[in-house]
Design goal:
5-stranded mixed sheet, Actin, Chain A, domain 4, Nucleotidyltransferase, domain 5, binds magnesium ion, alpha+beta, binds adenosine-5'-triphosphate, about 40% helix
Length: about 325
């Protein structure tokens, strides 16, 4: 077990879990490379701080975009660094990896991940469609009742029903927290003539985005004036960004309903009773459960472990050979 790791390389965060040790790494999936000589300058939190602030000699890369490997070399370098970080104390060489991948991941996507894992000296690896480990990571018991999972990540949203037998019906949509950041960025430009960077747009989301009725938080947002280019600050409140926030979550709810419409009557009845199990960072938006209930008339279950559930679930599978062989995607 010492060389087994559970891995979730998200579009926003990389999470690594080790049986017996718990979560051993939780860092942004971002790497900063020297533009010419390609050596690693920063990784994770430090690399993310450089987005929009790097010098000409530095290239800041988010190597996973919408749950697809956008840059195999950069991702290999990043993962190697992350595995080395935990190797020093806890991991013997050549790890065995159980990794979550997007729902319906095709052969091309899996091949790219294989190349990354091989470059990191993985001795053995298994891929599992993320809805399954997410259900296990949230601690759901699917032996008697299927579960409907909605994982709102940074790059994609995974939506589907799972049972002990596997994924009953599920899709991966290219919409995540980053899409909402971009929508907020565009909204600030249109409404206030204020241009902000990607990290500021995310900060605005994390500070004032809310679906809670009567919520009245506000913040001072620094950016530059759209016409003069001069630095400018604007006070932004919940109501100011409510429009893009609603557009984003309403769209997700619409897709949830489309997927639900494909379920058998039996499963639909089960789901109506249990409600939907939300996961991923985007599920932490304030007021989401009440808004969901109002729109869809169903319970929304939200968990503190939202951002690490998929990885924890891979850990459960890594500990149980029978379960892993049931769910591992065949690579032939
Ligand atoms: N309280 C919050 N409200 C709204 N969004 C949030 C909150 N906390 C985190 N997020 C957003 O959640 C996203 C990250 O979620 P998560 O860590 O689940 O993504 P990921 O697994 O890396 O991405 P993916 O699964 O799409 O590849 C980011 O866009 C982040 O801004
Ligand atoms: Mg994810």
């Amino acid at each position: 077990m010492r060389n087994t790791v559970a891995l979730d390389i998200g579009s926003s965060k990389t999470v690594i879990y080790q049986p017996g040790s718990g979560i051993v790494l939780y860092e942004p999936t971002v790497i900063a490379l020297d533009r010419e000589r390609r050596f690693v300058k920063e990784t994770g939190t430090e690399a993310k701080k450089l987005i929009g602030r790097a010098s000409d000699s530095t290239e800041v890369i988010t190597p996973v975009f919408e749950s697809e490997v956008a840059d195999i070399n950069a991702l290999s370098l990043l993962l190697e660094k992350y595995l080395n970080k935990i190797t020093v104390h806890r991991l013997s060489a050549r790890p065995k990896i159980v990794m979550s991948v997007q729902c319906g991941a095709d052969v091309t996507t899996l091949r790219k991940y294989e190349r990354v894992l091989r470059a990191c000296d993985a001795v053995d690896y298994s891929f599992v469609e993320s809805l399954i480990p997410t259900a296990y990571g949230l601690g759901l018991n699917m032996t008697t009742t299927p579960a409907f999972i909605v994982d709102i990540g940074g790059g994609t949203t995974e939506i589907g029903a799972v049972s002990a037998d596997g994924v009953l019906c599920g899709i991966s949509v290219n919409m995540g927290g980053l899409s909402l950041d971009n929508m907020i960025k565009a909204y600030l430009e249109d409404s206030f003539g204020l241009v902000v960077g990607r990290l500021t747009a995310e900060k605005v989301k994390l500070t004032v985005a809310s679906l809670l009725e009567g919520d009245n938080v506000s913040m001072l947002v620094n950016g530059s004036d759209l016409s003069s280019g001069r630095p400018r600050a604007v006070s932004v409140s919940v109501g100011d960004v409510l429009a893009p926030v609603k557009v984003f979550y309403d769209k997700i709810f619409e897709i949830i309903q489309m997927v639900m419409a494909k379920l058998s009557a039996e499963v639909a009845a089960d789901i109506r009773r249990t409600g939907v199990f939300f996961s991923g960072g985007g599920s932490k938006l304030i007021g989401l459960p009440d808004y969901f209930r109002k729109q869809l008339g169903m319970r929304a279950n939200v968990f503190d472990s939202a951002e690490v559930a998929a990885c924890l679930g891979c850990g459960v599978l890594a500990n149980d050979k029978k379960l892993l062989s049931r769910y591992a995607i065949s690579r032939r």
